[in-house]
Amino acid sequence: MIPELDDILNNSDAVSSCEIGAVIARLKQWNDRCRDMFVDLKHIEFKAVDNDMYIKTGSFDKPIFFKHNPEDPKNPKDIHAIKQFCKFLKVPYNFFIANSSLFREKIVDTWKAALRVKEDSGKCIFRIREAQDNATMRAMLEQTEVPLSNHEIVSLVSESIKEPFHIEFVCGDAKDDLLLHVRFILDKEYDLTIDKKIQIGFSLVCSELGSCPLTVDILLHEKKSATSYISFYGKGSFLKVDYKNMQANNLRSAFPKIVEHITADASDMLDRVRYKISDEKDFIADLECERFIRDYKLSPKYKLALFNQVYASKDEVKNPYDFARQASLVAKDYDTVKRIKIERSIGQYLNLTFSNS
Fold this sequence. Notes:
It is a single chain. The chain is an alpha+beta fold. The chain has helices spanning about 5-10, 10-15, 20-30, 75-90, 95-100, 100-115, 150-160, 250-280, 285-295, 300-310, 320-330, 335-350, and strands spanning about 35-40, 45-50, 50-55, 60-65, 125-130, 135-140, 165-170, 180-185, 190-195, 195-205, 215-220, 225-230, 230-235, 240, 355. The protein has 2 domains: about 35-140, no CATH class; about 150-355. The protein contains 12 helices and 15 strands. Strands 7, 8, 9, 10, 11, 12 and 14 form a 7-stranded antiparallel β-sheet that branches. Strand 7 and strand 8 (about 180-185) form a beta hairpin. The chain starts with a helix and ends with a strand.
């Protein structure tokens, strides 16, 4: 049964286990009262009063405030847009924010004066959220970045997949989260061994606020333990593109080909994993932990968690595949970027390494 929409919109956990329409509905609500503005930065007016900073433009009659949270002044979501502004200014964020309000205004004025002699520079996109008397700056993007919203991307991807699928989980689907991570799993099951079922799928990571490229990672997914192992292609992800000049039609045509590629590679991937299951000779779990951490340069924090997990499950860890499952269980406790890095390392460990996509 699909949760009621009001419950979905107010409960991220509900979204993680429901159908794609509910995921898109939740993402879409965060675009309420949002708009994009094409702005020439040569003609803005920047004002700073202590920690309050805002921009005025001639084409918009409300001040556009940068976010500031005095209780958590370093929150990445709150400082994201001002850090993007600093990149336009070519000034380090820490230097800019440490100066007085007056000096910050002078930095911007000096930069604008230099822009005026460069006719084609200073163009950008403001992603804002309007209120009655003002607006909030969500992000500042290069003018060549096509500002596809997260709900548009997820909708495009889901519509282009012709095979039956489900969403395993969604992370980063709250208001103005910097990264959205959606894991698509194809419903078809493969027999890895007599008692182990494997599915194939992919992770989609994107950002409507310009904090990361759009990436797709192909993976194997063990249904019983809900663990995943990401294939390594060339330099990492199967697909990695920035938003510059991105076209919706290109995305719409790309994902059926990605699913075809996943299906075509499934047999090879399963054979590689089966070999690891059979490779029990001279396997010692503790030594495997050390080797895995060393070979893939993973953090001391992860190393400790992995050792604890393997020790607690030592009777179940008989071969490299059993070890990979434990490593993936630990990866679930990490944020999107770190989790995918760990799961990709596990894929390499299982020999799920392929040429450039």
